[in-house]
Amino acid sequence: MSEKQLTVKQRAFISFYCLVFNATEAARCAKYQGNDNVLAGIGYENLRKPNIRQEIEERLKTHVMGESEALAHLANIARDYEHPGQLKALELVAKHLKLFEERHHVRMETLNIDFNQLSDNQLRRLANGEDYRSILGDKS
Question: Which domain holds residue 88?
Fold first, then answer.
């Protein structure tokens, strides 16, 4: 829907809402009159109007930074040794890349062992975490 179908206050509400993401505050900044409860109601109603909602969504599509753009900006800051936010940018990029997460690789095997046929010594060695191949003789 075009901005021409919106009132001056509605256009102002949209602009402020895209800055603060708070309908009550956007209504106040757009010069709607009333106390916080009245402004909250006006903001709520404005957000429910399809033409206002559509205009907000269109503006956010063009103005909101996407993940790849944000990551590119962080990467540029992280590469700038003189930027005061370099370490924080490096940390955020590393978190995004999950470099701080522990990674455990687990290999699962299905074993066909009849535990009734094992000696007490073999069972004790298995229980203590010794590799089954050394206990049973590598038959794989």
Answer: 67-96
